[in-house]
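Tokens in:
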């Protein structure tokens, strides 16, 4: 964790509250999901619905295939472990990352056949530190507020 400040983290429920304020459908992320859909286990109508629930549920022990020994309260850890590429694209776009950056990230990951590797490629273009900065700007639009 050298070189990282805890100030760029956020409680998962606070991050879910930020996500809840965002648009569910946007051009780059909708196209990405249409072209590379998750093939199994989809119950959501949008990545917004999916991610609000995913982040909100992290501070429990989970259920079914998604049980964990200890609750997780770190939005950074949740984001960095996320294996849903379309969700990474949606979060960046919905939080207000420049459309060219989002499109370049989506294009860089598009040809990778493995979803796990696609998620990692996307995070190289859209790292947590940038996502946290954008979330801070949404959460505190007047001055980007206190560290999260």
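Residues out:
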């Amino acid at each position: 964790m050298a070189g990282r400040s805890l100030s760029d983290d956020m409680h998962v429920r606070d991050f879910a509250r930020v996500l809840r304020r965002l648009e569910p459908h946007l051009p780059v992320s909708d196209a990405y999901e249409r072209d590379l859909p998750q093939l199994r286990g989809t119950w959501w109508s949008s990545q917004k619905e999916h991610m609000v629930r995913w982040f909100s549920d992290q501070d429990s022990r989970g259920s079914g295939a998604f049980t964990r020994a200890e609750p997780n309260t770190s939005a950074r850890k949740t984001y960095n472990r996320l294996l849903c590429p379309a969700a990474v694209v949606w979060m960046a776009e919905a939080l207000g990352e420049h459309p060219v950056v989002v499109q370049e990230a989506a294009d860089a990951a598009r040809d990778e056949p493995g979803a796990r590797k696609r998620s990692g490629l996307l995070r190289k273009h859209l790292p947590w530190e940038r996502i946290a900065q954008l979330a801070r700007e949404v959460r505190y639009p007047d001055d980007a507020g206190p560290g999260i």
